[in-house]
Amino acid sequence: MSNNLPKVAWIGLGIMGSPMSENLIKAGYSVTGYTLEQDKIDRLVAAGGTGATSIADAVGDADVVITMVPASPQVEAIAYGPDGILENAKRGALLVDMSSITPQTSVDLAKNAAEKGIRVLDAPVSGGEAGAIEAVLSIMVGGEQADFDAAKPLLEALGKTIVLCGPHGSGQTVKAANQLIVAVNIQACAEAVVFLEKSGVDLTAALDVLNGGLAGSTVLTRKKDNFLKRDFAPGFRIDLHHKDMGIVTDAARNVGAALPVGGVVAQLVASLRAQGDGGLDHSALLRSVERLSGSQV
């Protein structure tokens, strides 16, 4: 496909990366992808993208490199070293890291990339798998205004609310706050579900009316069926929320912000992992409330 749109390399085709990269293809972008599992690369090719055999192969010709991997160690693994993005992308390329990582990792990445003439944005997202598929993600961005302006048309193919939050690392800081709010919100919903059920109330009716009032939320809208059906197939795994609660509690300590309730929920998330539930959706916080309330789960 020959057009004037920037050529895109996409690294990381997981639960989020696959549908997001496909939305770029639908928007007319030429996308070359690389990830560790061959079947995910095959899926991208089937959607009209191009498969790459390595990171170097994927990024060599790209105007924009987008990364979507689980955490800071993976971002560092794909960015640095002789086979990484910084050594193999062309000068002037724009690296948009959409992973959720520590703000400091993003700051360091931008500094190291600048030495290679590569511009960087941290652009983590909120909205989960459904938001990725529907291209309605909220995208919080850190970096330079000019780079944000250059990336905005592309980000508009992926999300609905796209905001520059400040310098490098700011996107990650806002994402950390997002994960704090989501975890506390899921925990509150989970406690309400157990309370309602033990009281013998019709749960479907109760959640419908609650969601129409001040207690309503995007979390409740998206997770209501998970609670009702005890369906914890992962849209966002407990393992990843555990990582994010580590990021937010650590970052908050560094700036002197107290997170009393966030700290408690971080421990509840950690306990779910310890009980073997790390691969379940974060709505499985319900399981920990059920265990605490005497149910055999």
Automatic annotation (TrEMBL):
Which Enzyme Commission numbers does its entry carry? 1.1.1.60
Q: Name one GO molecular function term.
A: 2-hydroxy-3-oxopropionate reductase activity
Q: Does the keyword Oxidoreductase apply?
A: yes
Residue numbers annotated as active site:
175
Q: Does the keyword NAD apply?
A: yes
UniProt lists the family membership as follows: Belongs to the HIBADH-related family.
**What protein name applies here?**
2-hydroxy-3-oxopropionate reductase
